[in-house]
Specification:
Blueprint (H helix, E strand, L loop, with lengths): L2 H4 L9 E2 L10 E3 L9 E5 L1 H6 L10 H7 L12 E3 L2 E4 L2 E5 L5 E8 L11 E7 L14 E2 H16 L6 E13 L3 E11 L5 H9 L3 H15 L9 H26 L1 E2 L21 E2 L23 H20 L2 H8 L2 H17 L8 H15 L3 H7 L13 H4 L8
Length: 415
């Protein structure tokens, strides 16, 4: 085993690099994770491990997995970093933010680029491994409860066909962490082709570093538009990136709405430039259907409720467009690009309703039928997932009574 691979331990090769450093020192801070005392590997996604060419751990290698993916052991040839970004939170400018409890271990090349979206390399990020220069008043930690939720939900979302960061593994510890009550610490190791957010672009735009903003655009564009011409630069590159981000975000939010998924903290610093689901904080899947429901107990005005997610996503895209205006030099052109969000979102969601309703052909009145169904669900606060699923039990005979389990969702008026 060569020197570069020996740090990883007994369970297989993992060669990391930090190409993000090439963007310049203003993009990141060197920051070693604090790790966890006595780390214990508790959950592993075998599917995600295969993206990196890793075999699922056995009893011998689990100790090495726990050390590496808690941040207790790092690659000396590839020091971890934390990246800087800014953002709008609840519609207000929050200024500089950054990876307050996330450490980027590096980029790993996949042995099989045909897996999962065809990306040839994946960034590995640890969430909860300690403080960084961007932690502000936080402790840089994540607790076991929320870490389990992120691990399970991100993997579930992927297998439901929703673009999302992947969870590689979860490492626990007896380290106490104080929240509303004492809890224990945990670290989630998660993967994405890039963890660049809308807020990264906002940071360099609002700070006036337009040369850095251009470098970030040029860095990110090939990830959104694979095979994009290297000759595309300046305002054309920024417009190309914005247009791709609008399309991807519209499709993502349509996926969310169809599943009854509520992100809960849809700030610009939680929006992936790839149009992937990022940061599972106070998320929820809808139970009793209420378009105004939000799982975020601090969201007193319901800004991030299910019914408002499309509008908020469009608002966030306008913030991204504004951040890119110094490169595009035409504010109207940038805003016009965002206007494609609505038609794309509507088309994708309409197609999804067609399939969920079991309609084989597109006919006039289909959208009205879907709207009537949603109003019916809301007025009865019917269970979102069960009600859609139980439509499969409805007989073709229009005179037949509704299936009992479906009728139970509309007890006040089963007919």
């Amino acid at each position: 085993m060569d020197a570069h691979r020996s740090w990883f331990g007994s369970f297989g090769p993992l060669s990391l690099r930090q190409p993000y450093r090439a963007l310049g020192p203003q993009f990141f801070s060197d920051q070693a994770p604090e790790g966890l005392p006595d780390p214990v590997l508790q959950l592993v996604s075998d599917d995600t491990a295969r993206l990196l060419g890793l075999q699922p751990p056995d009893a011998q290698s689990a100790t090495d997995w726990a050390a590496v993916f808690s941040g207790s052991r790092v690659d000396p040839a590839c020091p971890p970093i934390a990246t800087v970004y800014a953002g709008h939170q609840f519609g207000n400018w929050a200024g500089r933010l950054g990876d307050g409890r996330a450490h980027l271990l590096g980029l790993a090349t996949t042995p099989d680029a045909s897996q999962n979206c065809g990306y040839a390399a994946w960034e590995i990020q640890l969430k909860g491994a300690g403080r960084t220069p961007y932690s502000r008043f936080g402790d840089g930690r994540a607790v076991l409860r929320s870490s389990i939720r992120e691990f399970l939900c991100s993997e579930a979302m992927w297998h439901l066909g929703v673009p999302t960061t992947r969870a590689l593994c979860l490492v626990g510890s007896t380290l106490p962490v104080m929240r509303e009550r004492p809890e224990t610490a945990a670290v989630v190791a998660r993967l994405a082709p890039s963890f660049v957010r809308f807020g990264h672009f906002e940071h360099f735009s609002h700070s006036g570093d337009h040369a850095a903003l251009q470098r970030l655009v040029d860095w990110s564009l090939p990830l959104l538009v694979p095979g994009s011409d290297a000759a595309v630069s300046g305002g054309d590159a920024a417009m190309c990136l914005l247009t791709a981000a609008v399309d991807r975000t519209a499709r993502l939010v349509a996926h969310w709405q169809a599943l009854g998924f509520i992100h809960g903290v849809l700030n610009t610093d939680n929006m992936s430039i790839l149009g992937w689901t990022l940061d599972y904080g106070p998320f929820a899947f809808m139970d009793a259907f209420d378009p105004s429901h939000t799982p975020n107990t601090t969201d007193h005005l319901g800004r991030y409720a299910w019914g408002r997610q499309p509008a908020v996503a469009r608002w966030n895209l306008l913030a991204l467009a504004h951040a890119l205006e110094p490169l595009i030099e035409d504010a109207e052109r940038a805003r016009d690009a965002v206007e494609s969000f609505g038609p794309c979102f509507t088309a994708v969601l309409s197609d999804t309703w067609q399939r969920k309703l079991g309609l084989d052909t597109v006919e006039p009145g289909d959208d009205a039928l879907a709207d009537d169904w949603l109003r019916l669900l809301a007025s009865h606060r019917a269970d979102w997932t069960l009600s859609w699923r139980l439509l499969a039990d409805v007989a073709f005979d229009p005179d037949a009574p509704p299936p009992p389990r479906l009728a139970a969702q509309f007890a006040a008026d089963p007919a």
